[in-house]
Amino acid sequence: MRIFLTGGNGMVGRNLLEHYSASNHEIFSPNSSELDLRDFQKVNQWLIDKSPDIVIHAAGIVGGIQANMREPTRYLLSNIDIGRNVIWAAYQNKVKTLINLGSSCMYPRDAQNPLYEEMILKGELESTNEGYALAKVFAARLCEYISRENSTYNYKTLIPCNIYGRYDKFDPLHSHMIPAVIHKLHIAKIQNKDQVDVWGDGTARREFMYAGDLADCIWHAIDKFDSLPPVMNVGLGHDQFVNDYYKVAAEIIGYEGKFVHDLSKPIGMKQKLVSIKKLNSWGWTAKTSLYEGIKQTYQFYLNEIDI
Question: Is 132 marked active-site?
């Protein structure tokens, strides 16, 4: 197939392109200098020129708690513009098949875990990343509305749990938890620091899946698209304490200092575990263990990142 992939330079996109299934298709994945997804006319013209069979929308302006709290306007407007332009241009150019990537931050902050797909818009969002979450809800709903109004269009949304892995962002100003922990512990090790701070008391629970597994699921979704539910979580079905992630990363990195909890820092949602009931019924399971995933991510960090 001819595939238009947005976000090809991001973590998810690059893992998709590395997957063995990518060689079976013709993939168009322009970077931001080649195609500004915030410009509808340019996105529309790109689709006219390339005539893809399917769109995989994995692009977005992303960041961790610090970045989302610092720039909520940017995360809201940029991601709404990107989502709207890609999805609407696909529809205007009669692209009948589209996979949109959502985010588990779309779920209400006080919802009971595990988080079922039907819970979206059933409560208040987590304030620390509300702008980004609203943009992701917008894109998912736009896909649903288009498919509801015209059944010949199949626009579906996958909602991954937290993702980490190769090609992640390790800059503390923009990174999510696991890459931030890897960077923090590595620096602490080489600087012989005897302690590392942990935001909060470390008892918040998080579900992190290796990006290579998400890529595998997306390629599986392309192959089994007809059986794919309109909206489906992609996760592990289990979570761990923040403290546990620090312990596993410290073991892999070889950091032997202690952890000190900073209770003045925000921790986001106390728990965020997605339901994988639909995923299990559909027939896909993640394969990479936490230890192996962090090990591969740390190796990438050592090989590729200018420390």
Answer: yes
